[in-house]
Design brief:
- The protein is mostly helical.
- It is built from 17 helices and no strands.
Protein backbone atom coordinates (compact mmCIF):
# COMPACT_ATOMS: atom_id res chain seq x y z
CA UNK A 1 0.00 0.00 0.00
CA UNK A 2 1.40 3.40 -0.94
CA UNK A 3 2.35 5.81 1.84
CA UNK A 4 2.99 8.60 -0.61
CA UNK A 5 2.03 12.08 0.53
CA UNK A 6 3.14 15.49 -0.68
CA UNK A 7 3.19 18.52 1.59
CA UNK A 8 1.56 21.86 0.83
CA UNK A 9 2.23 25.45 1.81
CA UNK A 10 0.77 25.24 5.34
CA UNK A 11 2.58 22.05 6.37
CA UNK A 12 5.77 23.18 4.61
CA UNK A 13 5.76 26.51 6.44
CA UNK A 14 5.23 24.74 9.77
CA UNK A 15 8.17 22.40 9.08
CA UNK A 16 10.39 25.30 7.99
CA UNK A 17 9.47 27.49 10.96
CA UNK A 18 10.02 24.55 13.30
CA UNK A 19 13.53 24.03 11.95
CA UNK A 20 14.57 27.69 12.15
CA UNK A 21 12.75 28.74 15.33
CA UNK A 22 14.65 26.76 17.95
CA UNK A 23 14.77 26.81 21.73
CA UNK A 24 17.27 29.65 21.60
CA UNK A 25 14.40 32.15 21.69
CA UNK A 26 13.90 31.15 25.33
CA UNK A 27 17.36 32.25 26.48
CA UNK A 28 19.14 34.23 23.75
CA UNK A 29 17.31 37.57 24.22
CA UNK A 30 18.70 37.80 27.77
CA UNK A 31 22.18 36.59 26.83
CA UNK A 32 22.44 39.01 23.91
CA UNK A 33 21.15 41.92 26.02
CA UNK A 34 23.72 41.14 28.69
CA UNK A 35 26.44 41.17 26.03
CA UNK A 36 25.50 44.39 24.18
CA UNK A 37 22.68 46.07 26.11
CA UNK A 38 19.75 47.47 24.14
CA UNK A 39 22.05 47.61 21.09
CA UNK A 40 21.64 43.83 20.92
CA UNK A 41 18.45 44.64 19.02
CA UNK A 42 20.68 45.80 16.16
CA UNK A 43 22.25 42.32 16.12
CA UNK A 44 18.82 40.71 16.00
CA UNK A 45 17.77 42.94 13.10
CA UNK A 46 21.05 42.28 11.25
CA UNK A 47 20.58 38.54 11.49
CA UNK A 48 17.00 38.78 10.26
CA UNK A 49 18.42 40.63 7.24
CA UNK A 50 21.17 37.99 6.88
CA UNK A 51 18.48 35.30 6.88
CA UNK A 52 16.95 36.69 3.67
CA UNK A 53 19.80 35.92 1.21
CA UNK A 54 20.51 32.56 2.86
CA UNK A 55 16.88 31.47 2.72
CA UNK A 56 16.47 32.84 -0.79
CA UNK A 57 19.53 30.95 -2.03
CA UNK A 58 18.31 27.63 -0.62
CA UNK A 59 14.80 28.25 -1.97
CA UNK A 60 16.16 28.99 -5.45
CA UNK A 61 18.26 25.81 -5.37
CA UNK A 62 15.31 23.77 -4.11
CA UNK A 63 13.13 25.09 -6.95
CA UNK A 64 15.71 24.08 -9.54
CA UNK A 65 16.78 20.76 -7.99
CA UNK A 66 13.98 19.39 -5.75
CA UNK A 67 15.44 16.25 -4.17
CA UNK A 68 15.81 14.55 -0.79
CA UNK A 69 19.57 14.97 -1.12
CA UNK A 70 19.20 18.68 -0.33
CA UNK A 71 22.56 20.44 -0.04
CA UNK A 72 24.37 17.25 -1.09
CA UNK A 73 22.45 17.34 -4.39
CA UNK A 74 23.26 21.04 -4.87
CA UNK A 75 26.96 20.37 -4.27
CA UNK A 76 26.91 17.52 -6.78
CA UNK A 77 25.26 19.75 -9.40
CA UNK A 78 27.81 22.50 -8.81
CA UNK A 79 31.04 20.59 -8.27
CA UNK A 80 30.45 17.08 -9.63
CA UNK A 81 29.02 13.81 -8.23
CA UNK A 82 31.97 13.21 -5.90
CA UNK A 83 31.01 16.28 -3.85
CA UNK A 84 27.69 14.79 -2.72
CA UNK A 85 29.04 12.19 -0.28
CA UNK A 86 31.18 14.55 1.88
CA UNK A 87 28.39 17.11 2.17
CA UNK A 88 25.77 14.43 2.80
CA UNK A 89 27.85 12.78 5.51
CA UNK A 90 28.40 16.15 7.22
CA UNK A 91 24.68 16.64 7.68
CA UNK A 92 23.45 13.08 8.10
CA UNK A 93 25.87 12.14 10.87
CA UNK A 94 25.50 15.50 12.62
CA UNK A 95 21.70 15.18 12.86
CA UNK A 96 21.87 12.80 15.89
CA UNK A 97 24.07 15.25 17.81
CA UNK A 98 21.95 18.20 16.75
CA UNK A 99 18.57 16.74 17.72
CA UNK A 100 19.99 15.27 20.94
CA UNK A 101 21.35 18.63 22.08
CA UNK A 102 18.04 20.32 21.22
CA UNK A 103 16.11 17.68 23.15
CA UNK A 104 18.36 18.05 26.18
CA UNK A 105 17.69 21.81 26.23
CA UNK A 106 13.93 21.20 26.13
CA UNK A 107 14.23 18.45 28.73
CA UNK A 108 16.13 20.78 31.06
CA UNK A 109 13.29 23.32 31.09
CA UNK A 110 10.67 20.65 31.76
CA UNK A 111 12.80 19.06 34.51
CA UNK A 112 13.36 22.46 36.11
CA UNK A 113 9.63 23.18 36.18
CA UNK A 114 8.99 19.77 37.78
CA UNK A 115 11.89 20.05 40.22
CA UNK A 116 13.84 17.22 38.61
CA UNK A 117 17.57 16.82 37.94
CA UNK A 118 19.84 15.61 35.17
CA UNK A 119 18.23 12.17 35.03
CA UNK A 120 14.80 13.69 34.42
CA UNK A 121 16.29 16.00 31.80
CA UNK A 122 17.59 13.03 29.80
CA UNK A 123 14.35 11.09 30.29
CA UNK A 124 12.26 13.98 28.96
CA UNK A 125 14.72 14.43 26.09
CA UNK A 126 14.33 10.75 25.21
CA UNK A 127 10.51 11.06 25.22
CA UNK A 128 10.61 14.15 22.98
CA UNK A 129 12.90 12.37 20.52
CA UNK A 130 10.75 9.24 20.58
CA UNK A 131 7.76 11.37 19.66
CA UNK A 132 9.64 13.00 16.78
CA UNK A 133 10.82 9.69 15.35
CA UNK A 134 7.36 8.18 15.74
CA UNK A 135 5.65 11.04 13.90
CA UNK A 136 8.14 10.76 11.03
CA UNK A 137 7.78 6.96 10.95
CA UNK A 138 4.05 7.44 10.39
CA UNK A 139 4.69 9.80 7.47
CA UNK A 140 4.65 13.49 6.57
CA UNK A 141 0.85 13.56 6.50
CA UNK A 142 0.84 13.16 10.29
CA UNK A 143 4.23 14.76 10.91
CA UNK A 144 3.44 17.89 8.89
CA UNK A 145 -0.06 18.21 10.35
CA UNK A 146 1.22 17.84 13.90
CA UNK A 147 3.97 20.36 13.18
CA UNK A 148 1.39 22.85 11.92
CA UNK A 149 -0.59 22.56 15.15
CA UNK A 150 2.48 22.85 17.39
CA UNK A 151 3.94 25.84 15.57
CA UNK A 152 0.55 27.55 15.71
CA UNK A 153 0.31 27.01 19.48
CA UNK A 154 3.89 28.16 19.98
CA UNK A 155 3.43 31.33 17.92
CA UNK A 156 0.23 32.12 19.83
CA UNK A 157 2.02 31.66 23.17
CA UNK A 158 4.86 34.00 22.16
CA UNK A 159 2.41 36.62 20.91
CA UNK A 160 0.48 36.41 24.20
CA UNK A 161 3.72 36.92 26.15
CA UNK A 162 4.54 40.00 24.08
CA UNK A 163 1.05 41.49 24.42
CA UNK A 164 0.85 40.83 28.17
CA UNK A 165 4.21 42.46 28.90
CA UNK A 166 4.12 45.33 26.36
CA UNK A 167 2.30 47.81 28.68
CA UNK A 168 5.23 47.57 31.11
CA UNK A 169 7.77 48.69 28.49
CA UNK A 170 9.89 51.66 29.53
CA UNK A 171 12.10 53.94 27.46
CA UNK A 172 14.51 54.06 30.40
CA UNK A 173 15.42 50.42 29.70
CA UNK A 174 16.66 51.43 26.22
CA UNK A 175 19.26 53.88 27.53
CA UNK A 176 22.20 53.92 27.34
CA UNK A 177 21.65 52.16 24.04
CA UNK A 178 25.18 50.75 23.63
CA UNK A 179 26.65 50.61 27.16
CA UNK A 180 29.42 48.19 26.16
CA UNK A 181 30.34 49.85 22.85
CA UNK A 182 29.39 48.92 19.32
CA UNK A 183 31.95 46.12 19.12
CA UNK A 184 29.78 44.24 21.61
CA UNK A 185 27.03 44.19 18.98
CA UNK A 186 29.29 41.99 16.85
CA UNK A 187 29.83 39.62 19.76
CA UNK A 188 26.07 39.46 20.32
CA UNK A 189 25.53 38.70 16.62
CA UNK A 190 27.95 35.77 16.83
CA UNK A 191 26.04 34.52 19.85
CA UNK A 192 22.72 34.79 18.00
CA UNK A 193 23.95 33.33 14.71
CA UNK A 194 22.57 29.84 15.21
CA UNK A 195 19.15 31.09 16.24
CA UNK A 196 18.69 31.55 12.49
CA UNK A 197 20.01 28.21 11.26
CA UNK A 198 17.79 25.40 10.00
CA UNK A 199 17.63 26.23 6.30
CA UNK A 200 20.15 23.48 5.58
CA UNK A 201 17.83 20.95 7.25
CA UNK A 202 14.66 21.79 5.35
CA UNK A 203 16.53 21.80 2.01
CA UNK A 204 16.08 18.01 2.08
CA UNK A 205 12.31 18.45 1.99
CA UNK A 206 12.26 20.31 -1.34
CA UNK A 207 11.29 17.16 -3.22
CA UNK A 208 8.33 16.54 -0.90
CA UNK A 209 6.33 19.53 -2.18
CA UNK A 210 3.66 18.89 -4.77
CA UNK A 211 4.79 21.96 -6.75
CA UNK A 212 8.23 23.14 -5.51
CA UNK A 213 8.63 25.96 -8.04
CA UNK A 214 5.42 27.61 -6.88
CA UNK A 215 5.34 26.63 -3.21
CA UNK A 216 8.95 27.05 -2.07
CA UNK A 217 9.09 30.85 -2.55
CA UNK A 218 5.81 31.23 -0.64
CA UNK A 219 6.91 28.93 2.19
CA UNK A 220 10.30 30.63 2.45
CA UNK A 221 8.78 34.12 2.55
CA UNK A 222 6.20 33.11 5.17
CA UNK A 223 8.90 31.47 7.30
CA UNK A 224 11.09 34.58 7.22
CA UNK A 225 8.14 36.79 8.22
CA UNK A 226 7.01 34.51 11.06
CA UNK A 227 10.51 34.03 12.45
CA UNK A 228 11.33 37.75 12.16
CA UNK A 229 8.14 38.86 13.93
CA UNK A 230 8.50 36.35 16.76
CA UNK A 231 12.25 36.80 17.29
CA UNK A 232 12.22 40.61 17.08
CA UNK A 233 9.01 40.84 19.13
CA UNK A 234 10.35 38.75 22.00
CA UNK A 235 13.80 40.41 21.85
CA UNK A 236 12.44 43.99 21.88
CA UNK A 237 9.87 43.30 24.58
CA UNK A 238 12.49 41.56 26.73
CA UNK A 239 14.81 44.56 26.62
CA UNK A 240 12.10 47.22 26.90
CA UNK A 241 10.34 45.49 29.80
CA UNK A 242 13.11 43.64 31.64
CA UNK A 243 16.12 45.80 30.84
CA UNK A 244 19.52 44.54 29.78
CA UNK A 245 20.23 42.61 32.97
CA UNK A 246 17.17 40.98 34.53
CA UNK A 247 17.40 40.38 38.26
CA UNK A 248 17.43 36.66 37.71
CA UNK A 249 19.05 34.97 34.75
CA UNK A 250 16.05 32.78 34.00
CA UNK A 251 14.15 32.59 30.77
CA UNK A 252 12.89 35.94 29.39
CA UNK A 253 9.67 34.33 28.17
CA UNK A 254 8.94 33.23 31.74
CA UNK A 255 9.57 36.73 33.09
CA UNK A 256 7.27 38.25 30.48
CA UNK A 257 4.49 35.74 31.12
CA UNK A 258 4.70 36.27 34.89
CA UNK A 259 3.17 39.70 34.37
CA UNK A 260 -0.07 38.11 33.28
CA UNK A 261 -0.27 34.59 34.74
CA UNK A 262 1.99 34.76 37.79
CA UNK A 263 3.33 31.49 39.16
CA UNK A 264 2.01 29.52 36.19
CA UNK A 265 4.65 31.15 33.96
CA UNK A 266 7.33 28.57 34.74
CA UNK A 267 5.07 25.66 33.80
CA UNK A 268 3.90 27.41 30.63
CA UNK A 269 7.52 28.07 29.63
CA UNK A 270 8.30 24.38 30.13
CA UNK A 271 5.46 23.54 27.74
CA UNK A 272 6.84 26.10 25.27
CA UNK A 273 10.29 24.50 25.54
CA UNK A 274 8.80 21.08 24.82
CA UNK A 275 6.90 22.42 21.80
CA UNK A 276 10.00 24.18 20.46
CA UNK A 277 12.09 21.06 20.93
CA UNK A 278 9.61 18.79 19.20
CA UNK A 279 9.15 21.23 16.30
CA UNK A 280 12.91 21.50 15.76
CA UNK A 281 13.77 17.80 16.12
CA UNK A 282 10.78 16.82 13.99
CA UNK A 283 12.01 18.99 11.10
CA UNK A 284 15.65 17.88 11.35
CA UNK A 285 14.71 14.20 11.51
CA UNK A 286 12.39 14.61 8.52
CA UNK A 287 15.18 16.19 6.47
CA UNK A 288 17.98 13.94 7.71
CA UNK A 289 16.11 10.70 7.11
CA UNK A 290 15.36 11.68 3.50
CA UNK A 291 18.99 12.60 2.96
CA UNK A 292 20.10 9.15 4.18
CA UNK A 293 17.77 7.43 1.70
CA UNK A 294 19.02 9.69 -1.12
CA UNK A 295 22.66 8.94 -0.25
CA UNK A 296 21.87 5.21 -0.27
CA UNK A 297 20.14 5.62 -3.64
CA UNK A 298 23.19 7.31 -5.13
CA UNK A 299 25.74 4.90 -3.64
CA UNK A 300 27.21 7.42 -1.18
CA UNK A 301 26.02 5.31 1.76
CA UNK A 302 25.19 1.58 1.74
CA UNK A 303 22.36 0.85 -0.71
CA UNK A 304 20.44 -0.81 2.14
CA UNK A 305 19.37 2.74 3.11
CA UNK A 306 17.87 3.53 -0.30
CA UNK A 307 14.23 2.41 0.22
CA UNK A 308 12.02 5.42 0.84
CA UNK A 309 14.05 7.78 -1.34
CA UNK A 310 11.12 8.63 -3.62
CA UNK A 311 9.17 11.78 -2.85
CA UNK A 312 6.22 11.04 -0.61
CA UNK A 313 7.63 7.75 0.74
CA UNK A 314 8.78 7.08 4.31
CA UNK A 315 12.54 6.38 4.62
CA UNK A 316 12.12 3.90 7.47
CA UNK A 317 15.58 2.34 7.26
CA UNK A 318 17.25 5.73 7.38
CA UNK A 319 15.02 6.69 10.31
CA UNK A 320 16.08 3.50 12.09
CA UNK A 321 19.77 4.33 11.69
CA UNK A 322 19.29 7.88 13.00
CA UNK A 323 17.21 6.60 15.94
CA UNK A 324 19.94 4.08 16.82
CA UNK A 325 22.63 6.77 16.76
CA UNK A 326 20.50 9.08 18.91
CA UNK A 327 19.87 6.30 21.44
CA UNK A 328 23.60 5.53 21.63
CA UNK A 329 24.43 9.21 22.11
CA UNK A 330 21.84 9.66 24.86
CA UNK A 331 23.08 6.54 26.64
CA UNK A 332 26.68 7.75 26.39
CA UNK A 333 25.71 11.19 27.71
CA UNK A 334 23.98 9.53 30.68
CA UNK A 335 26.78 7.08 31.53
CA UNK A 336 29.76 9.36 30.86
CA UNK A 337 28.01 12.50 32.13
CA UNK A 338 28.78 14.43 28.94
CA UNK A 339 27.60 18.03 29.06
CA UNK A 340 25.49 19.82 26.48
CA UNK A 341 28.17 22.19 25.16
CA UNK A 342 30.44 19.63 23.40
CA UNK A 343 27.48 17.87 21.76
CA UNK A 344 26.02 21.15 20.51
CA UNK A 345 29.38 22.51 19.33
CA UNK A 346 30.19 19.31 17.43
CA UNK A 347 26.85 19.40 15.62
CA UNK A 348 27.11 23.12 14.90
CA UNK A 349 30.57 22.76 13.34
CA UNK A 350 29.17 20.22 10.88
CA UNK A 351 26.06 22.25 10.10
CA UNK A 352 28.14 25.35 9.36
CA UNK A 353 30.29 23.26 7.01
CA UNK A 354 27.06 22.26 5.24
CA UNK A 355 26.11 25.93 4.96
CA UNK A 356 29.47 26.64 3.36
CA UNK A 357 28.90 23.88 0.80
CA UNK A 358 25.34 24.98 0.07
CA UNK A 359 26.17 28.66 -0.33
CA UNK A 360 29.24 27.84 -2.44
CA UNK A 361 27.00 25.77 -4.71
CA UNK A 362 24.53 28.66 -4.87
CA UNK A 363 27.26 31.08 -5.98
CA UNK A 364 28.01 28.79 -8.93
CA UNK A 365 24.51 27.57 -9.79
CA UNK A 366 22.65 30.89 -9.49
CA UNK A 367 24.65 32.68 -12.15
CA UNK A 368 21.45 33.56 -13.95
CA UNK A 369 20.36 35.61 -10.94
CA UNK A 370 22.72 38.47 -10.11
CA UNK A 371 20.87 39.31 -6.88
CA UNK A 372 20.78 35.67 -5.77
CA UNK A 373 24.46 35.14 -6.53
CA UNK A 374 25.58 38.31 -4.73
CA UNK A 375 23.41 37.46 -1.72
CA UNK A 376 24.82 33.95 -1.53
CA UNK A 377 28.37 35.27 -1.84
CA UNK A 378 27.87 37.78 1.00
CA UNK A 379 26.31 35.14 3.24
CA UNK A 380 29.14 32.73 2.42
CA UNK A 381 31.73 35.30 3.56
CA UNK A 382 29.95 35.68 6.91
CA UNK A 383 29.67 31.93 7.46
CA UNK A 384 33.37 31.38 6.66
CA UNK A 385 34.34 33.87 9.36
CA UNK A 386 32.16 32.09 11.92
CA UNK A 387 33.50 28.67 10.91
CA UNK A 388 37.09 29.34 11.99
CA UNK A 389 35.99 30.01 15.59
CA UNK A 390 35.14 26.35 16.20
CA UNK A 391 38.77 25.45 16.92
CA UNK A 392 39.21 21.82 17.95
CA UNK A 393 35.65 20.94 16.95
CA UNK A 394 36.67 21.34 13.31
CA UNK A 395 38.20 17.86 13.65
CA UNK A 396 34.72 16.32 13.35
CA UNK A 397 33.75 17.78 9.95
CA UNK A 398 37.23 16.98 8.67
CA UNK A 399 36.87 13.37 9.87
CA UNK A 400 33.43 13.00 8.24
CA UNK A 401 34.69 14.35 4.92
CA UNK A 402 37.61 11.91 5.11
CA UNK A 403 35.22 9.04 5.93
CA UNK A 404 33.04 9.88 2.94
CA UNK A 405 36.05 9.96 0.64
CA UNK A 406 37.29 6.60 1.94
CA UNK A 407 33.81 5.13 1.36
CA UNK A 408 33.86 6.42 -2.21
CA UNK A 409 37.35 4.96 -2.75
CA UNK A 410 36.31 1.56 -1.39
CA UNK A 411 33.26 1.54 -3.66
CA UNK A 412 35.38 2.32 -6.73
CA UNK A 413 37.82 -0.46 -5.81
CA UNK A 414 34.99 -2.98 -5.44
CA UNK A 415 33.69 -1.94 -8.84
CA UNK A 416 37.16 -2.23 -10.38
CA UNK A 417 37.57 -5.69 -8.83
CA UNK A 418 34.40 -6.96 -10.42
CA UNK A 419 32.22 -6.65 -7.31
CA UNK A 420 29.04 -4.77 -8.16
CA UNK A 421 29.01 -1.28 -6.66
CA UNK A 422 26.03 0.17 -4.86
CA UNK A 423 23.30 1.04 -7.32
CA UNK A 424 23.36 4.62 -8.53
CA UNK A 425 19.58 4.64 -8.51
CA UNK A 426 17.49 2.54 -6.18
CA UNK A 427 14.23 3.50 -7.83
CA UNK A 428 13.74 -0.18 -8.63
CA UNK A 429 13.25 -0.89 -4.93
CA UNK A 430 9.95 -0.54 -3.18
CA UNK A 431 9.58 1.25 0.15
CA UNK A 432 10.18 -2.08 1.93
CA UNK A 433 13.38 -2.84 0.03
CA UNK A 434 11.82 -5.51 -2.21
CA UNK A 435 12.73 -5.41 -5.90
CA UNK A 436 9.79 -4.19 -7.94
CA UNK A 437 8.44 -6.37 -10.72
Amino acid sequence: MSTSHRIGVAQGTALFVGAVLGGGVLVLPALAAKEAGPASLVAWAALVAFCVPVASAFAALGMRYPDGGGVATYAAKAFGPSAAAPVGWLFYFAVPAGVTSAAIVGGAYVADALGGGHGMTLAVAALLLLGSFTSNWLGLRLSGGLQLMLVGLLAALMVVAIVIAAPDASGDNLTPFAPHGWLAVGHAATLLFFAFSGWEAVSHLSGEFSDPRRQLPIVTALTIVVVAVLYLGVAFTSVAVLGSEPKRSGVPLTLLLERGIGDWASAVTAVAAALLTFATTNSYIAGGSRLGAALGRDGDLPSWLAPGNRAGEIPKRSLSVLASLVAALLLTAAVADIGLDPIMSAASACFVAVYIAGLSAAVKLLRGSRLGQVGALGALAVVLVVFVFYGAFLVLPVALVAGAKLFQLARRRRAAGGVPAAPADAAALTADGVPSK
